[in-house]
Amino acid sequence: MTIFADEPTLLQFPLPENGLVIIGDLHGDAFCLLKAFEFYGFPPNITYLFLGDILDRGPMQNEILLFVFLMKLRWPEYVYLLRGNHELYDLTKQYFKNQCLTDYNNPSTFIYINQLFDYLPLAAIVSDYFFFCHAGVSQWMTCRANIANIPRPTDLNNMKILEGCIITDILWSDPKANQKLPFDLSERGCCYSFNREALHAVLRALNVRTLIRGHQIIPEGILDNFGDGSCITVHTATRENVGCNASGTIKIVRKDDGKFVMEKRIAKIKCRKTMINLCDTVYALLCESLQRSRLNRIVLKCQWCRKAYPRNITRRIRNSGITEVTLWISRYALRYAQYDEIFHEAWRNRDDRAMNIRAYQLFPVLYDAVTFEGGSSTTPATFRVILAQWEKAFLRKLFVTSSDFELVETLANDVDPGLLEIQQRRSKPNLLKRTSWHVRNMLRHAIGLRDLPSLDDTDVSEILRRP
């Protein structure tokens, strides 16, 4: 755990001279991992970057996890692990927990592993060209610092709500080629999907060229999502339970002319019940690599081993989901949310599901409105790299007071990394356990307006002064 705790939340390093191999979702598929080792070899001849989702679904989750952790211990400068959504406690307790109980017969082992997951890096930037993460980008990635400054262990009580939103998007979001809005509520219901325009805005803000991700099942193993090389999805597992026919991996190398080349490997692998021959081959490669690079130092003590695991690890909220966002809006943004017709109609009809969905869609623009109070009388400000037209219209409706209104969009070179240092207005921890019924009642009593007057008939400054 110390190795991961000492690494930054955002890894940044040049492309290794021996190349970098990208491993996508494994989901307990040991056969595909061993085939990759057979093809590429072991460190120090090669460097590996895992995009997360090592766990769940497959039959050899603990074996893969232990093997990769041992590789990280042995070659910390040649093996990098990023966190996936299946390394979140909310998912591991559904799948991985039973596997731990079966393999170890000790519930504490499951808790210790999840404690380690809370220290895994979230993303990586290599040679100021490639951006790696498990799922996708976030509209709040206005600069690298907004990722790098996310504290670990990940706990919403120690973070700002926007940092929780960035984590959610990194672990859950998906690219949508046909999506009209730059960022929109994902079909997964817990993040914002992004289109090509949104991705390019984030890549410019981070000063990189290409996003390489996992997260999605790709029957062909590797997919160029937008057809322009800006978003590449890699899926390595091929087991029948994940519905994938090919194992995809990528090796990135740099040619003599300085250009980067992605050598894609798509292998049609049929998993077998026995792997004895493959294990013998991989074992021989491993022994050769270990003999070539002997250890010169040994860490005798580990600061984590004798510590009792924190009891709150099972109750820790690690990212900002729809519950946290809805509660935040109910406490701090109702005066603005009520001017959205869809939200107001759902509130009046007591339609909890529609209200929660619309609240999640409104949250980015409501956060801008509440935090900056319009920026000034004529120039609203934003944390985000890009705004949709309807969001601009919504902010204009709230704050414009002159005909020469101009919206300011904060981009990479303009953003102050300290913007995210604004003290976040967090709801009390016990409020996060409230049901939608409680949220609806909070909404009903939060303001004194039963029938909302038209914005044209109400003084804007008077509305903004209401508590």
From TrEMBL:
Its cofactor is Mn(2+). It comes from the Eukaryota. It catalyses: O-phospho-L-seryl-[protein] + H2O = L-seryl-[protein] + phosphate; O-phospho-L-threonyl-[protein] + H2O = L-threonyl-[protein] + phosphate. Keywords: Hydrolase, Manganese, Metal-binding, Protein phosphatase. Residues 82-87 form the Serine/threonine specific protein phosphatases domain. CDD domains: MPP_PPP_family. This is Serine/threonine-protein phosphatase. It comes from Wuchereria bancrofti. The lineage of its organism: Eukaryota, Metazoa, Ecdysozoa, Nematoda, Chromadorea.
